[in-house]
Specification:
The chain is mainly beta. The protein has one domain. Helix content is 7%, strand content 46%. Strands 1, 2, 3, 4, 5, 6, 7, 8, 9 and 14 form a ten-stranded mixed β-sheet that branches. Strands 10-11 form a two-stranded antiparallel ribbon. The longest helix has 14 residues, at 88-101. Mean pLDDT is 74; it is low at 143-193.
Length: 193
Amino acid sequence: MQNQIAYSLLQQKSLDDDRRELSGFATTPSPDRVGDIVDPLGAKFAESIPFLWQHRHDSPIGKAFLGKPTKNGIKYRASVARVDEDGPLKQMLDMAWGSIKVGLVPGVSIGFRPIKYDYMSEGGIRFTEYEIYELSAVTIPANADATIQTIKAMDFRRDRIESVRLITRAAPMESRDPSRGIPLIPRSSAVRL
């Protein structure tokens, strides 16, 4: 089985402009649109993994750190790098952070290599052991029920924290390679920061 991608939606608890940090759940056991499940307890991963832009391996934007897997999911903390020198890298990193901050890119997604999996009788695949090798900020998460619940940002004019409640819905997307029956985007889960 080829490498897989699983989506989650950012539910931003806080965004720190100085450190450019965000956190939430990288994956949960919720089934995605096509019924695939990625069991959080089956995950293996390094201490830190690349934080990518839209699963583009040529567009790293920072580092991510995954927490201990639990039956409810795997939490993460990620940061978008800051570059002071003008140029294409600074533009890409600033664009990525700005897009995440204002909610234009509301999702995260794990890239993983399946190790053990089963085809479920009701359809879909249950991934029971896998290696997570990257986390990405993504525009279109696969979970239709995933929402951004709260974004906290500093209101510098009034020097206080404000919360804004936002609700979004993801559009359906084709997620299987019909010639092989392999999920291209195998799962979704809600993410809380």
